[in-house]
Amino acid sequence: MTREITAEQATAAVAEHGEGPVWDASRGLLASVDMLRGDLLTVDLLRDGVELAEVRRRHVGDVLAALRPRARGGWVVALERGFGLLDEPGSPGEGGARSLGELWSDESVRMNDGGCDPAGAFWCGSMAYDSTPGRGSLYRLAPDGSVATMLTGVTVSNGLCWAPDGARAYYVDSHVGGIDVLTVDLSAPAVTARERFVDVEGGTPDGLTVDAEGGVWVALWGGSAVHRYTPDGALDTVVLLPTTHPTACTFAGPELDELWITSSATGAGVSDGRAGALYRCLPGVRGLEPLPYRG
Fold it and tell me: Which residues participate in catalysis according to the annotation?
């Protein structure tokens, strides 16, 4: 039996295109991006209440596609056409992101979404601005700063998160309408197999996260919902949202028992104070501590 949960609006409508939420336990922050404005958005969950919590905004660059905490402090980030590093506020290097170099020169292709693996590398995938099929790739930034291309020929490279066993990753290319599972040899590194996990109905699969029980939670662009699939692929939970374009989700809070969801005003067609807000619910299961970048 599928249960339903209703998420509550936790912030004002703060993002044009909110994406990439991640919990940073060391600072007690829920971070996300306003991607096409190039801004880092943070909510202090140790200080702010849930009801319309304050969102702090920091401009990083022309595009800020995704980010993850860095083990030595600050963030690893995906910029428009490559990776970068971002220092913490108040540090000597505070300011915009320091680019690690562009991976391609084509201005019609940008980074989109990603996550870290158990070896401490940061993966992020790309897409064409106009979503032309097959123009995206999936890249891996190793802790030593080297970059490898892990997949090619993808269209809208989206959510990526590792299973609790660390051997497999769940991955979304939104264009194909489902979630795949990648078998990864981190010593190579290489993707050694890619198989369909589930076909997603009711919206376009976008960003995702994995809970401590191995359940996979995916935001449905255009579907006003987040779905949870059990490790064997059964839909068992639907989180309902009062906005049409949720984009991604993550577990956050000191107990990792809160599910936070970003949303987009882009494509929503309305300015109703809901599209572009952050949402929150208590799903009854805990998440996994986000894997950091170790470079």
Answer: 206
